[in-house]
User: What shape does this take?
Amino acid sequence: MKKLLLTATVIAATAASLSAADKDPVLMTVDGHDIHVSEFEYLYNKNNSQQLQQQSLDEYLNMFVDYKLKVADAEHAGIQNSEEFLSEFNKFRAELAAPYFRSQTVEDELVNESYEHHKYDVYVSHIMVPLSDDKKQLLDSLRTAIISGKTTFEAAASHSIDRGSATRGGQMGFVVPDRFPWAFEKAAYDTPVGEISPVVNSGMGYHIIRVEQRKPTAGQVLAAHILRLTRGKSAEDAQHQKVVIDSLYNELQTGADFADLAKRFSEDPGSGRNGGMLPWFGKGTMVAEFDSISFALGNSELSTPFATSYGYHIIKKYDHKSVPALDELREKILENMKRDERGHAAEDAFIAELMTKYNGTVDKIVLDRAEKMISENGGYDSTVVARLAAMDVPVATYDGGAIKLSELIPSVPASGANTAADARNLIEQAAHLALQEAVLENARQDLIINNADYRNLVNEYRDGILLYEISNRNVWDKAAKDTEGLDKFFKANIDQYRWETPKFKSYVFFASSDSLLNVAIQYADSLSTDNQAAFTQDMRKRFGRDIKVERVIAAKGENAITDYLAFGGPKPESDKKTKWEAYGAYKGRILDGPEEAGDVRGAAVTDYQTQLDKEWVAQLHERYKVKVNKKVFEKLKKQQK
Assistant: This one.
């Protein structure tokens, strides 16, 4: 179906006319297009912020005019109407608008809800079953039985697939905000102490949660530890680890440096290399024994050795802090929201507001007619698709437009349309998506009109794409491919490319043996070297990877191999890491200066591009009319002082 996308030209015209309406005076007219002060100021300030040497307005004005002339030339070439341009431009425009198209109220509510969770520590038990309908029914039954008193939560926990908590009657531990699936976290914090949550789908399973304890958060701890592992060790080895940890504790008691001992003796490789330091952590992050001891210690206090399921530890606590301010956590919360079901909530709410604002409606009567036709046809096949595609009736409407059934049907997939009702649902879904894009496009148009920051960025990006493409056609790509023009330019300016010292110009052949090198040189004599690329390709076709051909131009002292081949230098030792033991020059000669553009290609191409650009700009000034409003410009200069 047709996409309702604004062309770049319409956007520019809309922005310009509304800038004028906002008393944004016209600074200049280029090829009949008005350029307003706001756009010029925006680009001038942005350009100066990126330059070490600040430009005056007079200096920038000339650059700006040349820039706008090139954009005008791109428009005359029709680049702004190409599919490639529109695809890239409209994608960028939509991405740029996305941050504006969120319900700030909904986003703030979700952020505040998450932040409130950080203020409390919630200890829970849970029962978890796999994600299947029959297991969900089982969990519903268990919940009912627990609430009615027919069984206990602890007994029902035997059904849980979380075997760790099941052995403890379902006891799981503290729920750490932002560390659990949002649905699970929300249920844990929404459920009152002593009560059981409804069945929750965490994405990993179905759960019921009983909240055992809720209290103001203990905050976060900064600590270091020394670990001696016992997991997987024999009783004898575990006892040895106990002796080691006790010995380390005694050293600490007599003044040994904790970080030094951790680096040398801790068997936690992650923290050990950092002197035992762990990142800040909150309640429930660590195993239970480690957790409780860490929070019980005072700042700078050292724990006695204790055991966990991992081994023996000594903890040194460095600091403790309460919940950070909302401003400190906001970005982290927003990042977490992007990864779960909250990720699109603010956008969905905004789109719902747009549907109301622009009176977006899907016509149920048209959908009913379509379903009836499909049913009478006996299914959603090519016959009924053709009939529906011929119906030029609106299936959805909004302020300023309509989406016709004939436009929509080609985008509706036949797969999944097993019944007439299924097909209707697919058509309705497609209609809602198309309507959503239509009202978003209306909102983007309004944003162009009402938001100067967005308007300036959109126009800058639009002109940037056009400038790149037209410059590539007239300067960059042309200079690289126009060998005849480049050679002519080089000969006309050869004095600019003189060398300070002679250089050796040659092909250098590399081979695995002297005999193969000689065969390659003999074969090369049968080829033309007028075209370097063709010559290299012919050699590669004949010898494959058995030889290597390089084109070199080097002065004495710049290359050890050419020093040996041309300037009487010592023979370099062969590189044992490669197979190239033999090498030699082919058609080598020492030149006092370059003899063709290829000898100084990088510099020559750059200079040729500069000349092409100057010639192009001169042509543009003759081709397109430019008129600068001097009064407006002088006023702008006074304001800038």
In short: Residues 132 and 265 are 48 Å apart (CA to CA). Residues 1-10, 12-21 have pLDDT under 50 and may be disordered. Residues 420-450 form the longest helix (31 residues). The first strand starts at residue 26 and ends at 30.
